[in-house]
Amino acid sequence: MTDKHQTAGHLAAIGTIFIWGTTYVSTKVLLGSFTPIEILFSRFLIGYIALLLIYPHQLKTKNFKEELLFMCAGLCGVTLYFLFENIALTYTLASNVGIIISIAPLLTAVLAHFLLHGERLQPRFFIGFTIAITGIILIGFNGSFILKLNPLGDLLATLAAVIWAVYCVLMRKISVLNYNTIACTRRAFFYGLIFMVPTLFFFKFQLDFTRFHDIGNLLNILFLGLGASALCFVSWNWAVGVLGVVKTSFYIYAVPVITIVSAAIILHEELTPIAYGGALLTLGGLFISERKAPLITEQEEIVLEIQNTDDTNL
Asked: Which residues form the EamA domain (predicted)?
């Protein structure tokens, strides 16, 4: 992978996270007129249609095992993750959900370490994680000092983080199949919508398009469907294929920083000085974790692998 591809991968991840960091605010606004499942189904239906128009070619998988990867990715990354996240937003602050979701990189890195080849945990990951998580805890104090956190909302947000980690690992496995990224994302959206249909009968869902007469509702759902879903899932999945799941997922640590700023500007959620300090620590941890490792590290790793192979043969 060339340096140009690496740079493009980092830019794609940064752009994606910047948009995703504001989605909590858009969702919070829409919750005034829509239920969580209505927002979820609408945004991914819009996203699926957009991707179909952009890339109308059919994706043909080689076997059921490959198709099963797309099914699981749709179930985890679309249906379960966003259902838990949207419901969590009805119980707690938008900024709090963004903070809790930020444990996803750690969970993703652990899963990738054991389930994916070439995704080893490096020392700088733990250094960056320690600094970033300290910042995230400080940001969390912003919400807990102003309004008490709701245990149910926290639990749902935590489950969403676990599910997102599984989704990232699945998309890494899908990326090595060398299919078109837009087609892969659209297939995951398709299964996500299919798995979502049964939930429409258990949660409040109605086809009332008059609510989109409100320009605020219309703009926010289009932002979630076209920007945060269609565009961002494609760019994120591509970044995972280029950078790997661990490097890409670390950018999630920037989500609470973007979220608290956007929540303060749009929703007028109060910020404290300790939250600003936490934001700086979080970004510092992200910078350390994403620093390019010296070239000698890769060479040493190859030598170690050869030595380990020789030791095994002995």
From this structure: 8-140, 152-288
Count the Cβ atoms, other than its own, within 10 Å of residue 210: 6
**Buried b vs exposed e over 154-166: b needs ≥16 C-beta within 10 Å?**
bebbbbbbbbbbb
Q: Are 42 and 221 in contact (CB under 8 A)?
A: yes
What residue ranges do the domains of the chain occupy?
Answer: 3-313
| Whole-structure pTM value | 0.77
Q: Calculate the dihedral angle through the C-alpha atoms of 154, 156, 161, 167, rounding to the nearest 10 degrees.
A: -170
| Alpha-carbon dihedral sign for residues 176, 182, 186, 192 | positive
pLDDT tens digit sequence for 120-176: 667 777 787 778 777 767 766 655 444 455 678 878 888 998 999 999 999 989 999
Q: HSE-up of 76 (CA within 13 Å, CB side)?
A: 18
Widest CA span of the chain, in angstroms?
Answer: 74
Q: How many helices (H) and strands (E) does the chain have?
A: 15, 0
Least Cα distance to 103 among 289, 294, 253 occurs for 253
Q: How far apart are CA 314 and CA 309, in angstroms?
A: 9
The residue to which tokens 């991707």 are assigned: 51
* Cβ pair 175, 9 in contact under 8 A: no
Check: CB of residue 55 under 8 Å from CB of residue 47.
no
Check residue 31 and report its DSSP letter: T
Tell me the C-alpha distance between 71 and 78, whole Å. 10
- Please list, residue by residue across 44-81, b when 16 or more beta carbons sit within 10 angstroms of its beta carbon and e when fewer do: bebbbebbbeebeeebebeeeebeebbbbbbbbbbbbb
Within 10 A of 285 (CB to CB), how many other CB atoms are there? 23
